[in-house]
Amino acid sequence: MAEYHVPVLLRESVDGLDIKPDGDYLDLTFGGGGHSREILRRLGAGRLMGFDQDEDVLPNIPEDERFVFVNHNFRYLQNFVRYYGWGQVDGILADLGVSSHEFDEAERGFSFRFDAELDMRMNRRSVLKASDVLNDYPEEQLLSIFRNYGEVENAGRLVAALLKARQEKAIVSSDDLYRAILPCVPKMKEKKYLAKVYQALRIEVNGELDALKEMLVQTAKVLKPGGRLVVITYHSLEDRIVKNFFKTGNVEGKEEKDLLYGRVNNAFELVNRKIIVPSEEEIASNPRARSAKLRIARKVEE
């Protein structure tokens, strides 16, 4: 059986948490549990809360009394920390990548490698599927999605092809989608183009960027002074949001200064000014790590 998910930048990200043996930590993207198991290995009497909205991860939950699992989106992290009676925590880790399991299970519809239903829901209890977006969204909304979430260069032409195709037949499967947009796909760049199209749809279906923004804002309230926030990103859209938040304390990247001293109001300070990326050895053994960027910030002492 293939491994559910190979954790990216495992040592570097867990090192970034600066773990205290008796501390409390959050793993906001549990997945295959690789990062969580390493955190638990370094903990003594401390505790770890793991979040994941995908029910497929349930068999990966470790039998460890120090571990609490939350089967919900990390955008609700503050509610659940409060629900379980935890106070502020010592560290938060978020690996924003889609799990290998979701990419490799044809029925999930995340990959153009398989002819399967265009689903793409990370939380299968939610209603909206990628096929709903393609068949029901109006032209302007589709244009916005492919331009902003996929950064597709010929988004206008792409949307025109989709509108034409769906008038004749509903776009339900990845094969339907491929046939509909084939005239728009650049020669010799097919995989890169399809990856952008699928990324845009996935982000829309799962509300990924809004969830990320909501999560980041909550971390400033949930972390103790001196606590660490460790985030691994995989594409420019999410990385820009994280970079803005770490630099300015808000997701828009606007520097807000106090009137008295002119200092930037930011609850965080950077731990690594230079982005940490996977080694050549890690990329060779796990090609899906190649676009990963690791950023680490520390909540300022009050």
Q: Detail the poorly predicted runs.
A: none
The secondary-structure element order is: HEHEEHEHHHHHHHEHEHE
Strand proportion: 5-15%
| Major pleated sheet | 7 strands, mixed
The percent range for helix content is 25-40%
C-alpha end-to-end distance: 49 Å
User: How many β-strand runs?
Assistant: 7
Instruction: Give me the number of helical elements.
Output: 12
Gross geometry: globular
Mean residue pLDDT: 93
Overall SS class? alpha/beta
Please state the CA-atom Rg, rounded to the nearest Å: 20 Å
Strand order of the largest sheet: 3-2-1-4-5-7-6
Give an account of the 3D structure.
With 302 residues, the protein is of the alpha/beta class. 39% of the residues lie in helices and 14% in strands. It is built from twelve helices and seven strands. It has a seven-stranded mixed beta sheet with strand order 3-2-1-4-5-7-6, sandwiched between helices. Strand 1, helix 2 and strand 2 form a beta-alpha-beta unit. Helix 6 packs across helix 9. The longest helix is centred in the middle third of the chain and has 17 residues. 42% of the residues are buried.
